[in-house]
Amino acid sequence: MNVYDGWRIVAMLDARGMTRTEDVSDADIIILNTCAVRAKATDKVYSALGRIRLVKKPNALMGIVGCVARESGADAFKRVPDLNFVLGPQSYHKLPEILNDPNTRLFNIELSGLEKFDEMPQMEKSPLVTYVPIQEGCNHCCTYCIVPYTRGREISRSFVDCIRDVEQAAKNGAVEICFLGQNVNGYKYTDENGKTYRLSDLIRTAAKIDTVKRIRFTSSYPTEMTDDLIDMFATEPKLLPFLNMPIQSGSPNVLKRMNRPYDLNQYMDIVRKLKLARNDIQISSDFIVGFPGETDDDFEQTLQIARTIKYINSYSFKYSPRPHTAAAIMPDQIPENIKSKRLAILDAELNEIQRAFNESCVDKTLTCLCEGPDKTGRHLVYRTPYMQQCIVARPDGEPKQLCDIVITAANKASLRGKIAD
Ligand code: SF4
Predict the structure, then answer these.
(1) Average pLDDT over residues 147-165
(2) Are 239 and 203 in contact (CB under 8 A)?
(3) Looking at residue 286, what is its pLDDT?
(4) Does pLDDT of 159 surpass 70?
(5) Which residues contact residue 100 at a Cβ distance below 8 angstroms, ignoring those fewer than 6 apart?
(6) Which helix (H) or strand (E) holds 373?
(7) What is the whole-number distance in angstroms between the Cα of residue 139 and the centre of ligand 1?
(8) What is the whole-number distance in angstroms between the Cα of residue 420 and the centre of ligand 1?
(9) In the predicted structure, residue 120 carries a pLDDT above the cut 80
(10) Which of 138, 322, 325 to mutate to test the pocket of ligand 1 (most atoms within 8 A of CB)?
(11) CA triple 246-232-131, angle to 5 deg
(12) Closest C-alpha residue for ligand 1 atom 8
């Protein structure tokens, strides 16, 4: 979502005739698009601001947008007095106001809903992969998560608006569409005639566009994997066989304290249904280790579920107490050294699973999407249906956007391959 927001901000400033610079001391406006999901991310924002203010041009405008802006509120101006703007994740479309009047301070952290989507310019040219946001916010209130505070309650965009964005992206050259939302499979929009649309309707409609070849969505909440959506994996070949469905912990006790109201049987049932719908489907997850009260036994259950499901491409983090969340004031906070130890053990397990999966792809032919040349320019980087990076020797002439690649080698991080004859 943040990457998408970043692109929209760039498109908005492009439309004002501004150009990008990599050199912060050359910039007229400096925008930090921020994430507040972990304390470390927030700390990094303020230390970056401290460094930037020493090298920026005296008149350059500097500010923060996104979740740290919402989390810090007006305190951000106290912490960094030369900030010119502080705009929450649903207010960054107001950024041009500071360009119109650079002598004011711009402050808006309201949760204004979907207004920003209507007020932002469309991107002129889409990358091959285009993110289409379909909903924002979350109603789940996991006890560790700041998102319901920073992004607000769930709101779904209208079906017509979402499909208009897909059509526009396809017209601008997008081959892959990724539907995006904090709780993307909670998408639910009822139009003025009372017809309700779900994510499955968006996938079915987007798949009808000829030039759209691949569709995916992120990020999913387990209990919102409804049967109509699972069926899509069986019936819609453009939907990639890869799904991020975070479990967070393998311990029922921890899940309960996290306020994630599913048990492992329910979760496994969903995985079974997904495998029945499409037997080559692979799943990735997010994990939090060291949640308050997590015992060695709880942690062992997390390792167990990772081995059972064989998640690929997962993300794992140490629990980080956040303001405005219930878990931050729970007793039995886990000491940092135990969190670090558990994270290292889990990471080693997940890396091993990922390496084994990558190696299982050798000799297979996968249809991959070109991302462009690597740093050397001698190779092309392709993305498999499972989002693995696959490096291929650069052929003469224009590279094919989407092509079959025979996988020839693999390690934990990436694959190597050759374009099939
Ligand atoms: S479902 Fe995800 S975004 Fe929503 S509260 Fe839980 S962790 Fe946060």
Answers:
(1) 93
(2) yes
(3) 97
(4) yes
(5) none
(6) strand 365-373
(7) 8
(8) 41
(9) no
(10) 138
(11) 60
(12) 145
Distance CA 65, CA 35 (A): 9
pLDDT digits (tens, 9 = 90+) for 172-189: 899 999 999 999 999 999
pTM: 0.90
Reported confidence tier of residue 123, pLDDT bands at 50, 70, 90: low
**C-alpha of residue 131 to centroid of ligand 1, in Å:** 20
Name all residues whose Cβ lies below 6 A of ligand 1: 138, 140-142, 145, 147-148, 182-183, 221
Distances, alpha carbon 365 to alpha carbons 107, 234, 360, in Å: 52, 20, 12
pLDDT band of residue 109 (cuts 50, 70, 90) is confident
Residue % of the chain over a pLDDT of 90: 78
Domains of the chain (ranges; CATH) run 2-108 (3.40.50.12160), 122-240 (3.30.750.210), 365-419 (2.40.50.140)
Residue 287 C-alpha to ligand 1 middle, in angstroms?
Answer: 12
Whether the CB-CB separation of 142 and 258 falls below 8 Å is answered with yes
* End-to-end Cα spacing for the chain: 37
Which of 221, 256, 320 has most ligand 1 atoms within 8 Å of CB, for mutation?
Answer: 221
